[in-house]
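Regression report. Comparing outputs from two consecutive submissions.

Submission 1:
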Amino acid sequence: TTFFKKKLTDFCMHRVLQILPTIIRSSHKAWTSYVSQTEGLLFQINGSLAIITLDRPKVLNSLSLESIRSFTKLLIACDDDPNIRVILVKGNGGKAFCSGGDIVGITNSARKGGDIHLRFFQEEYCLNHLTSALRTPYISLYNGIAMGGGIGISIHGKYRIATEDSIFAMPETAIGFHPDVGGSFFLPRLSGSLGMFLALTGYRLVGPDILHAGIATHYMKMGNISNLELKLSHVQSSDEVDNVLNTLKVGNLTDSCFFKSQTQLINYAFCAETVEEIFERLLYVKDDWSRKIFERMFLMSPTSLKVTHKSLNLGAKLTLKQCLEMESNISYNFLQTNDFFEGVRAMLLDKDKKPNWRPSTLDLISNEIVESYFRNSGHFLTFHT
């Protein structure tokens, strides 16, 4: 019975995605209350508003290869329809927008000699770029946890809305990986050395801090979201989208304690030319917060720290496409070594939080080792635009 249910679900999902572009281009009247479900996604049309809801709440709306493919097809179809004036993406379940990619599935595929992990990264990075190239205004609502791959499907779009429930992080160095999904592009473009700080530490930003950091473009209360969707369903132009967002956003937010008290230290420590010097500067400051950040970084994969530091410095001078191509090589090369698998084991599977990093210290990681992660993997990205 389970087998036949799965086959039926797969068939229905395939048919919805297959006929979707044709349906969208047909009479717009049929879409005023249209709702559909595909793999890990809910899709709805309300007037001129298309809503894509990430719908894997049991795994905090993490992205699978199937949901990435469905997401891509939906975006392309919506962007081709002149009757759809705005696209809104949000998460289901009340806890998360999107917690990232299906990391456990990726590492399992790599261990077993499959190719799902290769296709996952290739198609995810192409989806990341697609969100930057849409003609239709694209809004991401951070209604909960937004991390890793969840940032990749949102940060490159025009609008990102933070709420009191929003939590942002790029926690990849804690699992022996690197901030991908365009992290090497958007992080070094944040103010001062904030991006390097967020990339190396995996530090979590909450609520208004996400706006102050430049991750979000607007801040709203969750109680206003239903009103937001209603107003967006009637917009007829990009200017109207701006007006709706600016009308409903919370104004005159005071800077949080984090940004008031730590910006100077972050800019001082994380502008250093090497990871080793960042550690030295954190020790030199000698206050409680810098000590906590030092201890936090000390737990991260030393290889991840050095590779991430280099990727952000390079990414500051590259286009988004170039950054994603560079990250594709880095991701492939991480899958050929120890730390990514060990980090996933320690943090996500066994959860003992005691990863055995190899190499175990920064001084054992030569420039040649770091450079090896940037070598061409032979796996190329085919962007949609």
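Submission 2:
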Amino acid sequence: LQARFRANHLCQVQHHHYMNLRQAAISLQSAVRGWNARKRLKQQTRAAVMIQSTWRVYFARKTFVSMRSITIKLQRTVRANQLCQRMRCEYMELKQATVTIQSAFRGWRVRKSVSLQQKAATTIQTTWRTYMAKKTFLSLKQATVKLQARFRANHLCQVQRCTYMNLRQAAISLQSAVRGCTARKRLKQQAKAADMIQSVWKAYLIRKRFLSTKRAVVSMQRKVIANQLCRALCCQYREQRAAAISIQSMFRGWRARNQLNLQHRVAKTIQTMWRAHLVRKYFLSLKQTAIVLQAKVRANHLCIIQRHQYVCLRHATITLQSAIRGWSSREQLVDESCCSSAKSSKSQPALS
């Protein structure tokens, strides 16, 4: 019985010692596993913190770079717009000055050409009038010289005839006085012959004077007709010249107006194309700015969403970590209570 009792008691003591050792081993294993878990959790926490800090630095740097690029683009756009407006103002001022200079130069050139044409027309008129006056004067002078020559020749002929008649009358009287009656028959014959000669001579002189007068009248008539025809032609030329000048002035005015209208149309076309180019350029810049702003707004919105998700995930992670830590603390407290109870149970048999 004592052997059985001692064997039973020793078995119980060994069982209790085994249970204590087992409980101690379990406590030690749980402590080591808890320490390993806490160490691993701390490492994971540090790694998570490192990842979060790295991610925040990367995201902050990316946001800063994107905002910086957007700011640079906006600054470039604003500066380009200001430069475009300034260049447009300078171009408009230069264009206005160029148009003013062109109008002044064209006006001066037109006035100069008109003055030169007027001077040329005045010179041509003066030369033509001088030529016509000189021609008329020369023709009148020639006719006057011819008339004077004819008149002097006629007067000289009359004077010579009178002298001749006087001399003849004296000779006849002297012959009639000297010869007397012997010469009356012959004188009668000579008188008849002289009468015949005189009649023939007078007829010749009358015919000659008539022909010369006729030629002079015909020449005067021709001169008068030529003068009248010249005056008519001069009037006709003046009328035709005035009509030609009017036609030329109208044609030149029409051509100048057509050129001016063409230049206005070309200038309007250039202005329209330039304004369309500026509007298209401004629209493209606004479109690019709107696209960049839209991308930035979308990126900002996506960043807000991701940050909200990250905050939710972080809150869930913190909650999970707090739950795990509470559970591990409770497990540790349970283990410690078990260890303390085991120690107290060991001390009680020893005391007994």
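Expected: both submissions complete independently.
Actual: both completed, but the second showed a warning that disappeared on reload.
Relevant detail on submission 2: The chain has a mean pLDDT of 83.
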